[in-house]
Write a structure and sequence with these properties.
This protein is an all-alpha fold and 499 residues long. The protein has helices at residues 2-15, 18-36, 41-55, 60-85, 96-105, 109-142, 147-161, 169-183, 209-231, 246-267, 274-289, 300-316, 318-324, 330-341, 350-353, 355-384, 391-410, 413-431, 437-460, 471-498, and strands at residues 186-187, 194-195. Helix 6 (109-142) runs parallel beside helix 10 (246-267).
Length: 499
């Protein structure tokens, strides 16, 4: 513990230098704006700023502090478009749309935004505290997860989807299956065979996640607005000066605590990320707390859970990167590349050889979480006023954000056709009362599931028993069975009691 305290003292000495303090605040503010733009997200924000930080000759600790500020600032900012426009800024914000957007439509945009800011602050701070104290030990445990353990984790995540969102379990599972089908498109990495490409060369590499999320959410929302406008049923959204209340914090405190723990521990597993953490946290909280059936209709607990989890996962992903040199997510992979650009080798020795970099980065995350809360709470009213824009003006705004965002990042005109086609498909699914969140999560988890299943079977020479050899795998399968079976048993018992 003494080494942690001395390390943090060194780190705060670095982070409180005026130049580094300015970079923390700038990174958090810029990250919030980047995260609020649909399609950009933290990975693109960090990728854009990395060559600038390196080219300007920043010291290694200053460059990492700036890029980390962009990272968790973008995790913060992804909630803005998710709540206000029903268009998630990144994968981690998909679950935020489920209860955040209904709150905004009910005239509680300010309350939703400020509650999500508080939940994000708690989740992020919790993650940094655990990173400081238990980082190396947790990372050592995380790397013991084999491909077969990851398969079990994905099975548990899919089981969690069964009662995740929507009124129909069948439609939820069908949505996840559609996502899995979309994830299989492209060239098979093992055999080199083109799967479901129909001779179109532009999708041989698969469909990019940004294309799927902007198409199914952004363009589908646009088509829904156009439909209401054509039918003359377009209503202006009510906007008031609502703000998070102590009663909201009291009601969601245990939700935030549970989700922070879930988010952090899923975040330290390399390759999982905020999307898995927010999905598992939301599903867990729905089972624990949703006795009135209010989740999905603007329940503050359904908003607080994914917001605490995705920010805790962002901090958790830093653990394997700093202590073992293994990136926990796509964004931390870029941060790892930044360290290598400065000739710094991540790992346990970095804390003794380059303490100003390792501890300076950790200390800046404490400051950054406070800075994000201070920056974002006063901006709640400004963000909420976006809803005062007449909705017939929102249609071209969403279209511009979607097309420019996708073309700037991907640079392929075919992808503009893809988001349009997926938008029509998403609009049809919404007409049939499908929730789009399981589709996105099925797409995200599908790639992870297939990759780890292939690795596990390759290691075992095709022996399927490798999937149940580890105690961690068995524990995950048992949890998956409980998650799938217990709600069915409880529902039948309630029917018997009512009868």
């Amino acid at each position: 513990m003494e080494s942690v305290i001395s390390g943090l003292a060194t780190g705060f000495g670095v982070a409180f230098q005026p130049f580094n303090l300015m970079l923390v605040v700038f990174g958090c503010f810029a990250g919030t704006l980047i995260g609020a733009l649909p399609g950009l997200g933290p990975i693109n924000g960090v990728a854009i700023l990395l060559p600038i930080a390196y080219g300007l000759g920043f010291p290694p600790e200053s460059a990492l502090i700036l890029l980390a500020g962009i990272y968790y600032g973008a995790e913060y900012g992804g909630r803005v478009s998710a709540i206000l426009l029903n268009v998630p800024g990144d994968a981690g914000a998909v679950m935020t749309t489920i209860d955040g957007n209904p709150m905004a439509r009910a005239g509680e945009a300010g309350r939703a935004l400020s509650l999500s800011a508080v939940a994000s602050f708690v989740g992020g701070t919790f993650a940094v505290v655990l990173l400081s104290i238990f980082g190396p030990a947790l990372a050592a445990f995380a790397v013991t997860f084999s491909p077969s353990d990851y398969v079990a984790l994905m099975v548990f995540a899919f089981a969690s989807l069964a009662s995740l969102v929507g009124k129909s379990t069948v439609k939820t599972l069908l949505g996840a299956l559609i996502g899995l089908m979309l994830a299989t498109i492209g060239i098979d990495a093992n055999t080199g065979v083109a799967r479901y490409t129909f001779g179109i060369p532009d999708i041989l590499a698969g469909i990019d996640f940004l294309i799927v999320v902007v198409g199914l959410f952004g363009m589908a929302e646009l088509l829904t607005l156009v439909e209401h406008q054509a039918a003359g049923t377009l209503k202006s959204l009510p906007v008031d000066k609502s703000f998070v209340r102590w009663a909201d914090i009291s009601r969601t405190k245990w939700t935030i605590a549970r989700s922070s723990v879930i988010g952090f521990f899923i975040g330290i597993l390399p390759g999982t990320g905020a999307s898995v953490a927010s999905a598992v946290a939301y599903g867990t909280e729905k089972r624990i707390s949703d006795r009135e059936g209010t989740f999905g209709h603007g329940d503050p607990r359904g908003l607080a859970a994914p917001e605490a989890a995705n920010n805790a996962a962002a901090g958790g992903a830093m653990v394997p990167m700093l202590t073992l040199g293994i990136p926990g997510s796509g964004t931390t992979a870029i941060l790892l590349g930044a360290l290598l650009m400065f000739n710094i080798q991540p790992g346990p020795m970095m804390f003794t050889q380059r303490p100003e970099v390792a501890w300076g980065l950790i200390a800046s995350m404490y400051i950054g979480n406070v800075a994000l809360l201070v920056i974002n709470l006063p901006m709640v009213g400004l963000f909420a006023r976006m809803l005062t824009i007449p909705q017939h003006y929102l249609t071209p705004l969403i279209a511009i954000l979607a097309f420019i965002g996708i073309y700037t990042i991907v640079g392929n005109p075919f992808d503009l056709l893809m988001i349009t086609g997926l938008g029509v498909f998403g609009w049809l699914l919404r007409k049939m009362e499908f929730s789009l969140a399981p589709v996105i999560l099925g797409f995200v988890l599908g790639g992870l599931f297939e990759d780890n299943l292939r690795r596990a079977l390759s290691i075992s020479g095709g022996d399927w028993f490798i999937l149940v050899e580890s105690w961690k795998s068995i524990a995950m399968y048992l949890l998956a069975i409980l998650v799938a079976v217990v709600p069915v048993i409880l529902a039948r018992r309630q029917k018997v009691v009512v009868a």
